[in-house]
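User: My collaborator sent over this chain with a note saying "see what the structure looks like." That's all I know about it. Can you take a look?
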Amino acid sequence: MQGWILRWILNIVAIIITSALLAGFEVTLWGAIVGSVFLGVVNAIIRPLLLFLTLPLNILSLGLFTFVINGLMLWLTSVTIQGFDLLSFWWAILSAIVLSILSFIISLLIDERYFGARY
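Assistant: Without extra context I'll predict from the sequence alone. Here is the result:
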């Protein structure tokens, strides 16, 4: 349970940092908290289905279409959650790229034992 809470808090921080870096992505603290939960649910339910349906396009683009899918998930979150605002779909794609990079960096900096990794 502790690892899940830490991941959630780090995801909120990554969303806030992404919003600070990009002019087309605005988020309130409450929007980041609720948006993080909603984005997690969307990524768990809708994203795998979209990745499967767009598999041929993803293969042709050598995996780059995944950024479009991630942007779509962010855009869906911004349409649904108040205080989680993206100016356009292109800002959603750029925000998804920055958010992916930040999440990768955060996961490198944090000790794996906090994420519940099994040795």
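A starting point for your reply to your collaborator: Helices lie at 2-21, 29-53, 55-60, 65-80, 89-109.
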